[in-house]
Amino acid sequence: MTIILGLESSCDETAAALVTGDGRVLAHRLATQEEAHRPYGGVVPEIAARAHVEMLTPLIAAAFEEAGLTLADVDAIAATAGPGLIGGVMVGLVTGKALAHAADKPLIAVNHLEGHALSPRLADQSLQFPYLLLLVSGGHCQLLRVEGVGRYKRLATTIDDAAGEAFDKTAKLLGLGYPGGPRVEKAAALGNAKAVPLPRPLVGTSEPHFSFAGLKSAVMRAAQAGQHSVEDIAASFQQAVIDCLLDRTARALSNSHGVTALVVAGGVAANGAIRAALEKLAADNDLPFVAPPMWLCTDNAAMIGWAGAERFAAGLIDGLDVAARPRWPL
Ligand code: KG4
Ligand code: ZN
């Protein structure tokens, strides 16, 4: 059975994992840099890159130890080659190249978004192409028709902020700190989602895309007005995001024939209220709903190893001259 070493270092998580071609995660190790970035209220690229240098090699060693394997046992090395903070991407990709060169193994340069896009197939081996994917993370908010490995049709994207970015900015405005998404979700659970009237940009329009900038500005005005509790603003904000995601996804579903499932992936998919709303939308459309477990939604190396395994099976190998890419649309 194929064994792939996966490496992830594109943002503020450093991670290494060993994944098999039939979807078993033999080991996964992850170090989050939350503490290092917290004083700055967001990810500082220079600090992130330095932390990846320190953390990645010990994490790889720990993953091999956990699985009882050595570099000689792997069939290929898959590393995130973008998109992301370029200093961090370079650390993971160069480490992958060095290991591939030293052990004479193939290198697979994985698009981080492809890692998220294929992660539901690691979680649920029965998930077949084509599926409709809502990819919601800190940097991206897209609807994709996933037709096969390396075959992604983008149906919608955000015209301004990503959904996770809106969560992070709202958390900052409300003084909830970093990282924002989980903290807003926690505060929202204690608030009234109908308390604060907030806009739902683009909802009900024939336009396929997402927009969250207007929502963020409205949250800022509500926070400054001081008439509502943090919990009520958080709950109203989260509901507005859910309404936007649902309306846009429903629109894409009605235009997307023959999909096998509605699938959500990316860090924002860790949000329980968003998962529940999407699950209901799928049921209303007589489609199965697939969402990876929480740990597989936020950045990790198992999804990179799995995307590597899918690419390896399809014969998609890269040369050691492959470049790190800060921007890389799927
Ligand atoms: O996929 P990810 O780990 O990194 C990127 O590739 O961007 O996503 C991180 C994003 C952050 O914006 C974070 O606030 C958001 O996912 N997030 C959440 C939750 N957990 C993480 N957003 C809403 N609710 C959550 N529970
Ligand atoms: Zn991500």
TrEMBL record:
Keywords: Acyltransferase, Cytoplasm, Iron, Metal-binding, Transferase, tRNA processing. Binds 1 Fe(2+) ion per subunit. It comes from the Bacteria. Fe cation binds at H112, H116, D299. It is an enzyme of class 2 (transferase). Its cofactor is Fe(2+). Residues 25-306 form the Gcp-like domain. Its EC number is 2.3.1.234. It catalyses: L-threonylcarbamoyladenylate + adenosine(37) in tRNA = N(6)-L-threonylcarbamoyladenosine(37) in tRNA + AMP + H(+). GO terms for molecular function: iron ion binding; tRNA N(6)-L-threonylcarbamoyladenine synthase activity. GO terms for biological process: tRNA threonylcarbamoyladenosine modification. Substrate binds at L135, V136, S137, G138, G139, D168, G181, E185, N271. GO terms for cellular component: cytoplasm. Pfam families: TsaD. It is found in: Cytoplasm. Required for the formation of a threonylcarbamoyl group on adenosine at position 37 (t(6)A37) in tRNAs that read codons beginning with adenine. Is involved in the transfer of the threonylcarbamoyl moiety of threonylcarbamoyl-AMP (TC-AMP) to the N6 group of A37, together with TsaE and TsaB. TsaD likely plays a direct catalytic role in this reaction. Belongs to the KAE1 / TsaD family. HAMAP family: TsaD (MF_01445). This is tRNA N6-adenosine threonylcarbamoyltransferase. It comes from Sphingobium phenoxybenzoativorans. The lineage of its organism: Bacteria, Pseudomonadati, Pseudomonadota, Alphaproteobacteria, Sphingomonadales.
